[in-house]
Amino acid sequence: MTVLVARRAVGSYSRRPLNLVLLVVVPVVLVFVWGPSLADFSKLFGGAGDRAEIDAATAGWAAAALAGLAGFFQVSGSRTADRRLAAAGGRYAAVVAGRGGASFCLAMVAAAGGLVALAARTGINDPFRAISATVLIAIIYLALGVLVGTVVKTEMNGALLVTLAWVFDVFLGPAMGSGPSLVTRVFPLHFPTLVLTGQVTGHAGPLGDVGWSLVWAAGLSTLAGVRLAITIRPAPVPHSVRAATANARSLSATTAVQATATSPLPRIVVVANLPASTTRTTPAIRHVRVRTRVLAVSRAGMREHRRNRVLWALLVAVPTVFIGMAIMVTVDVPGPISLFDGGRRFTGLLSERRIHAATMVPVTSAFLAGLTGLFVVTGSAGGDGRLVLAGLRPREVLAGRLAVVAAATVLTTAVAVAISGMWYPPRQWAVFAVANLLIALTYAMLGVLIGPLTGRIGGLYLMLLLAFIDVGLGQNVMFPAGPPAWGAYLPAHGASRVMIDAAFTQHFDQTGYFLLGLAWLFVLTVATGQVFRTRTAMARR
Amino acid sequence: MSKPTTPAPTERSAPAPTGPSAGLTASGITKSYHRGIWPRRREVPVLRGADLTIGAGEVVGLVGENGSGKSTLMKILVGALAADAGTVTVSGRIGYCPQEPVLYERLTCDEHLELFGVAYGMDERAVSSGSEALYSTLGFDRWRTSQTAELSGGTRAKLNLAIALLADPEVLLLDEPYAGFDWDTYLRFWDLTAERRAAGRSVVVISHFVADEERFDRIVQLRDGRTVQ
């Protein structure tokens, strides 16, 4: 049974085209696209910035991203069916072993994906080190994903937790220059990344870096295995089950005899009986005002998402921790930055830590706002379609959803701005906040736009890649030569220039860039409306 | 994609009250699904020219084997799915009860009915009285403040049906609405249906139960993608 469960699980993974696409796209993007930029990034944070080390690390990061989410969705998508399977056969250990075996296979596939991309890009200098460390990293993240899958009920929260753990591990890890930091030593990938990149910590004690990596892998795997077993194990059967069933039947029969008459329902008067036509007629009653309908959807959306406490906690906690830690691990040395103030362009020399404090705000809020947009629109797709069938216009439903997304975006941006401003207050508070909000809203709209096209999982990866490629790399003013030229074509370009202007200069003089940012938001909003209308407006065709 | 919609000569298309009394008329509905990825992409035809007409005050059972296209036809009738070809004419509003409950996980029953009441264009009083009547009739009043995620399968099915019935629409399309109901609720459902028939509403119910046959005015069967009787 174990082998059969494992085979079916792997087969199920491979039958989902998105998994196969991501298996190729994630390593290619991380190793080929991110690798060169991240080496420069590492230098800024006080890392060695060694290209070979970063290249090796990207293979591990790709493996971790794939394995973590694969582990999570393996468990979250199958735990109920696995429990039923275990209950049916009475061999739950075999089901646990099968699921574990399948997960291990996926970790190996994830590791292979990262290593193949690395071999294609630069070749592998030390195959034993690269393969063993990448496999260890994949196993650690697989176990983390499985663990989260057994604890967190909703897909959205679980996928978000795994992704955020990965973001912390990668961007605040030793390959990015925070090796000496005490805080980041507790991250799962701290020691394995050092092994992978051939660095020596000097703080691993008698166990050594390899020893600690093995401890992480074995410890998390054991914990994940135990949690998986507890999750899949059928509930013990009470001794009185037969008697209880008999009682239930007897009660059911009694109730059936006492079936009562129904109460009359209110009648809605049809204002006009519409003539038959070759197409669908519109609803006969529509006396509720547009504003009332939009408010009803917004209120329901806020109620629904307010009850998702994990999401709101993440929207507040992640900017707090991520920005705070990023500032702490950045080496405080002066760095050049190109600025424009009072009609004069000049190169200023500012603390790298201060620059990083400002640039982390849009990265964090864009990513979180994008995920919120993605999850809000995908989480309510079925119900929203039914609302449109019931009589609401697609744009009314969309307006209600966007109100929820906007509220979440304002919250997470406000927290990010406040945390950054507590360390290094921007020169123009209001403009700084508005520019960051503009970037975050743009990414929230991107999330709403891609959600119906890619689904949650594809969208999650895409938002992660887009936010960090655009806001994190394409607009990053910390590079010695300034932001890369290709960054000018990406959505955050205009608002990022305004954000830098507001953070470090006294006067607002980036009107053109502000309008560019607004134009991106407008275009994305129009595109979002079109996609949403197409997806939900079948009833109006 | 359009397809020829000639009915098989040995079968009679589902008869149809025509004229102003018809609540819903569908003709020549064709639909194919596309499966697989190129180069193994293939077309699976489901409906090949289905016709259906439901008169006012008529309760029609839509039956057929598993996979015969009943739910697909119903989704097309309600507008949740686009047909490849064919026409659908509906006089008045539609109440649709999908096979799997389509609900918001973190909203309560009350909040669902309030929201859909606004969508139907009902005022607060009508939503309130309609909700009370449905809670009472379907017997799930005590769950009105519970979030959907906390409800049993049967109660979710009751809420799913209640949303379709709330505005007392002229045409009701119900896809196996009583799956998960207890016997008492099942009987009450048929009482509700009888009330709707008496009020001149058109009702289509997808059913698998042979025992339900006597409750329908007419049974339409889907066979080989066409409606026959």
Q: How are the SSEs ordered, and which strands pair?
A:
The complex is a heterodimer of chains A (541) and B (229).
Chain A: H1 2-14, H2 17-44, H3 51-76, H4 79-89, H5 92-121, H6 127-151, H7 155-171, H8 190-197, H9 208-232, H10 241-257, H11 290-306, H12 309-329, E1 334-341, E2 344-351, H13 352-379, H14 381-390, H15 394-423, H16 429-474, H17 493-504, H18 511-536
Antiparallel strand pairs in A: 1-2
Chain B: E1 22-35, E2 42-55, E3 59-64, H1 70-78, E4 85-90, E5 94-97, H2 109-120, H3 124-138, H4 153-165, E6 171-175, H5 183-198, E7 202-206, E8 218-223, E9 226-228
Helix pairs in contact in B: 2-3
Poorly predicted parts of chain B: 1-20
User: How many runs of DSSP E, i.e. beta strands of chain A?
Assistant: 2
Silhouette of chain A: globular
Largest sheet of chain B: 6 strands, mixed
Distance between the termini of chain A: 50 Å
Percent of residues of chain A in helical segments?
Answer: over 70%
| Count of domains of chain A | 2
Large-scale geometry of chain B: globular
- Number of beta strands of chain B: 9
Question: How far is the N terminus from the C terminus of chain B?
Answer: 27 Å
Class of secondary structure makeup of chain A = mainly alpha
In terms of DSSP E residues, the strand content of chain A is under 5%
Task: Write a short abstract of this structure.
With 541 residues, chain A is mostly helical. In chain A, 72% of the residues lie in helices and 3% in strands. Chain A folds into 2 domains: 2-232, no CATH class; 293-540, no CATH class.
List keywords for this structure.
heterodimer, A: 541 residues, mainly alpha, 2 domains, two-stranded antiparallel ribbon, 18 helices, 2 strands, globular, B: 229 residues, alpha/beta, six-stranded mixed beta sheet, three-stranded antiparallel beta sheet, 5 helices, 9 strands, 28% helix
